[in-house]
Amino acid sequence: MLILLAATHFLVDSAALILAPLWPLLGNQVQLANGGILWMVALWSISTSFGQFGIACIADRFPCRWMIWAGPAVAVACMSCLGWATSTWALAGLLCLAGLGVAAFHPEAAANAGNCLPERRSQAMAVFALGGYLGQFFGPIYIGWVTEHYNLQSLVWSMIPGFAWLVCLCALLRTPTSGCPRAASRLETARLGTKDSTIRLLSENSGPVSLLILIGTLRVVAASGVPLSLAFLLDPQGQNPTQASFPIAAMYFGIGAGGASTFFLKPMQERRVMWILPICASPVLMLIPFTRDYWMVLTVGLSGFCLGVTLPILISYGQQLIPKGQRVASSLTMGVTWGAGGLLVPLVVHFLKDSNLENMAFLLYGICALLSGLLCHGLPQLVNPGSRAQ
Fold this sequence. Notes:
This protein is mainly α. About 75% of the residues lie in helices and about 0% in strands. It has helices at about 1-15, 25-30, 35-60, 65-80, 90-115, 120-150, 160-175, 185-190, 200-205, 205-235, 240-260, 265-285, 295-310, 310-320, 325-355, 360-375. Helix 1 packs parallel to helix 4 and helix 3 packs antiparallel against helix 15 (about 325-355).
């Protein structure tokens, strides 16, 4: 089951991350100025990220396993039709629906993935996250190739392999031997009771949860801000879509490689890694605008690796912190943090671009990474990492 979830995560994040190098082209398609494009980025972030929290509150109380296939189906269908959007409203509608599809998948899938290996929850999340990271690497390169050799309208043919996999997924999920036979029962045990509420669970852990959201948001500002800033930094240099997509893809490849390496960490090493590597990423992020060609790809990839190692650990930590609300915890560390960061990044990029200070964005990303590492010292030590959420 864990492999099925990781493969579907690859599909979902491939569809989601085709947007990274595509924003300038979509802006030209519907005649949006840079400010309008950044508002579309904010809309996308709200629907994909904050939507996760609302959906997770429902999924922690009622069985919603169907979201594992229905969410990706909506996302793939809407993203494949972006090339046919001829107005601002049509583009906004497709982005919103696709974002909600992405939001429906992540909390349910992450909770199922974590319960496949409850004693090694961070390692299970590393496998699940690896599928997404590989999708984030593949998506920008794929859309760069499509736009260079064909056009955005031809993206609609991507629905065929996407829906083919989802049909196979539905068939495999119905099979009793599809993976972890105890994962579903663990999730039912961890489901909210009639006397429990999401607000009560969060209020009981308000301090650690708030700090965890802040740490995650700071890391997301760096991780999601770099690709967006690179898209606008490289566009005036006259690079074709394929060339411009490589540094962006390098960021996601680095994040993916870092996330995969979490699988080899011991539980007692996770806390140390969670604060050291973001601090190491800080100076590397600040160097990005001063590099070119292969050096830029290397620098971007290295910073992505340092940030990527810590992301599965944060998700696992949240699930262990709120064992009876694992979907809500996943939505906070995967959704709300990405939503908050996704809202801040367009505003910052828009302000700095209008002020002709685009390079200053990378200084800000370095500071955010540094702060996120230092703040980890305020998180409480879990008594038995990796097993509390059993």
